[in-house]
Amino acid sequence: MIDFLVARQLETTSSVKRKILLGVSLFFNLGVLFVFKYFNFFIETFAEVFLLFGTPISYSSLQFILPVGISFYTFQTLSYTIDVYRERIRPTNDIISFFAFVSFFPQLVAGPIERASNLLPQFQKSRYFKYSRSIDGLRLILGGLFKKMVIADNCAIIVNRLFEDYTEYSGSTLFCGAIFFGFQIYGDFSGYSDIAIGSARLLGFDLKKNFSFPYLSKNLIEFWRRWHISLSTWFRDYVYIALGGNRVSKPRLVFNILVVFLLSGLWHGANLTFIFWGLIHGIILIFTVFINNETKFEVFLQNQNSIVVDFLRMSITFFIVTIAWVFFRADSITEAFGYLERIFSSTLFSIPQGNKLFLILLIGYLGIEWFQKKREHLLDIQYISSKSIRYLIYYVTVFVVFYYAGDLQTFIYFQF
Amino acid sequence: MKVFIKKIFLFLLPLLFIWVALESFYRTVESNYSYKHRMISNSYNDIETLVLGDSHAFFGINPEFMDAKTFNVSNISQSLYFDQLLFDKHIDSLPNLKNVIITIGYYSLSQLKNTKEDRWRKYFYHHQMELDVPIINPLDVKKYSLALTRRFDKSITLLHDYMYKGTIVGCDNRGWGTYYKSTNNIPLVEGSRATAKRHEDFLMDFEENLVRLQSIIAYCKKIKCNVYLVDMPVYNGYLKLLNPSKLEKITNSCNDLATNYNNVTYINLKRDFRIEDADFYDSDHLNHKGAKKYTKIINEIISDPKNQN
To answer: What InterPro entries does its record include (chain B) (predicted)?
Structure first.
């Protein structure tokens, strides 16, 4: 309601008051997010710091239940007021459409984080049934169910066991565990996004793409163009560019990238593990940016035009992302470092325990993604002219979803 | 739109067919649940001893070696919640009942209702044992379709077992579980760690389950029936991995019940010298040989006039 009113006022107000109005919107949105999500984390961290210096302080933490999806819809509504402030869009006078935009059920709890410029006008115009769009929506839902129920839920069983008892396993097994988590979070989150986009498509709405085969990225910059696209573009547009973007001095560029990735980590949760995860991505991304800019190394690599070079680059990116995932998954920083310490021990080169076939199948799945990389999504198979083959693919997918579904697990991103 | 709906319907038709086939499979083919229900209903007038409990009782107490006519109505992952529902359902139809044996495991007293273990089982109790299960929501679609309750791969496995063996019933006509043979199937030492971990629920609140037990005991007292709370034997390596304070609390709670109710006897045979490692199927279940040996021990205790209240 505040954002709706602020946006309407922004249209008719002078420049000084506009800043105040934007401040009001930021204060309320980020304030609510802070109270619900970060208050306890900061107060506990402060208390620990004071304790380190021998001054224990008493504090009381807030006992709130975190509203589901708060980070998603806060960012969505924030983008609306900022866009109105920047005069990129005009504020709406239709309160029903505005509330529908903020609380649109397919993407309410875990995104994609939509922009008002894309979603809001869709509520205000008539929608008509379109056969091809509805069929594609169903394909997206089926692909999403496959990613969630087959890939993510089966990986979760292995990952939970390995992270719970990581001291019991060899380095190679734990490394496989980190890879499994990479697939779990990808299947879980991109699966949800596909289901959300597909459901919206059935209702006649087009939501933005949130994932674009991220594990086929050849460097970390590309990874962030393909992973959680709606969040990374949000940070790009509203934080990175606001800080000056890349048209700044080198130290400032380093600062800008680090701020964006620290905030990105913090957005995921009030825990040092997420901050470390963001920091790792930020630091490696800085290196990638400088290597590309300074040595023209990227241009050289692109000119190689070889599958082997591409495969090597994808493997290195995948390795970096996998190691960073350990911080994302671990319950504490100590656990994350303990897990990594065991990975990089002498047992790293032993034969891993557990289901190796599943790991091979997951790598095989990336092969399917490679095959589909120029398509919109995994089951975008309209180009296959034979109807029977298309139906066979649908039925095989349905069978695999039913037969190989893992134990039901909550969507990871629901907690954010 | 019409083409879309027609195509969706045609696409779903084979899936609907599979659902109907599975539903008729579950409705017509006898399972442990429906078989036990039929058997207990057929022998109401004969039953003198009734065994309630989870898999430890299901595989560990063989009515064949009991002197009194015994029926084992326990089942895999059967909690005290379902023990009570079964007891309430059948008790008034058992005119000759003299003893009720209830097994108490490490998690029995702390177990919550509607856990992951009950996720599909509760519907089978409802459909195939004719229990009115309050934890099932009337609007839950699974209440009306058994094919939707189990995972598809499990249903296919059961279907395969039925085609191959001709039955999916895994117990004899007195309710004793017959899957576990006379060898250790799972290594005891390695299995102990995983089992102990699986059984650790970190719960110490026994209140709800003690109320259930007290309800059963009080009714038994009213009808002059003895209750035996039985702690089943477990492999020593497994026992060592359990929380000692919880074990102590379980023992104390059972002892309190035995003190407060004169129709209750607590039999703690977690570690009994007569049960050897070779008597276990895994760290917490007896095999055929162990079940025979253990049932005879229980039978001796129950038959002892000292324990007849």
So the answer is: SGNH_hydro_sf
Token output for B25: 């499979």
Tell me the pairing of strands B99-103 and B49-52: parallel
Partners of A398 on chain B (C-beta within 8 Å) are 15
- Active-site annotation of A, residues: 268
d(C-alpha B133, C-alpha B170), whole Å: 23
Residue B54 vs residues A300, B82, B86, B114, B115: alpha-carbon distances, Å: 67, 10, 13, 15, 14
Instruction: Compute and round to an integer the Cα radius of gyration of chain B.
Output: 21
CB contact under 8 A, A403 and B156: yes
Chain B within 8 Å of A27 (Cβ-Cβ)? no
Report the pLDDT value the prediction gives residue A298, as an integer from 0 to 100. Answer: 65
Domain contains B19: no
Range of the domain at B48: 30-307
Chain A environment of B11 (Cβ under 8 Å): 391, 394
Question: DSSP states of A343-380 as a string?
Answer: HTSGGGGSPPPS-HHHHHHHHHHHHHHHHTTTSSSTT-
State whether B4 and A129 contact (CB < 8 Å).
yes
> Cβ A134–B15 below 8 Å, yes or no?
no
Nearest to B266 by CA among B281, B251, B244, B248: B251
Residues of the domain holding A144: 131-415
Distance separating alpha carbons of residues B3 and A392, to the nearest angstrom: 20
Return residues 131-160 of A near B (CB < 8 Å).
131, 134-135, 138
Same domain, A168 and A51: no
pLDDT over threshold 90, residue A89: no
List CB contacts (< 8 A) between B3 and chain A: 131
Structural domain count of chain B: 1
Domain co-membership, A76 together with A140: no
- The listed range with the strongest mean pLDDT (A11-15, B30-34, B201-205, B272-276) is B30-34
pLDDT greater than 80 at residue A396: yes
Q: Is A366 on the interface with B (CB under 8 A)?
A: no
CB pairs under 8 A between A and B: 21
On whether residue B11 sits in a domain, the answer given is: no
Verify whether the Cβ–Cβ distance B11 to A135 is below 8 Å: no
Q: What is the pLDDT of residues A352-376, one digit of tens each?
A: 887 778 888 888 898 999 998 889 8
Yes or no, beta carbons of B153 and A398 under 8 Å apart: no
Residue B292 domain flag:
yes
Contact, A115 vs A79, CB < 8 A?
A: yes
Tell me: cis bond preceding A121? Omega within 30 of 0 counts.
Answer: no
The pLDDT tens digits of the residues spanning A265-294 come to 888 877 889 999 999 999 999 888 877 766
ipTM of the complex: 0.75
- The DSSP secondary-structure symbol of A65 reads P
Number of domains in chain A: 2
Beta bridge partners of B224: none
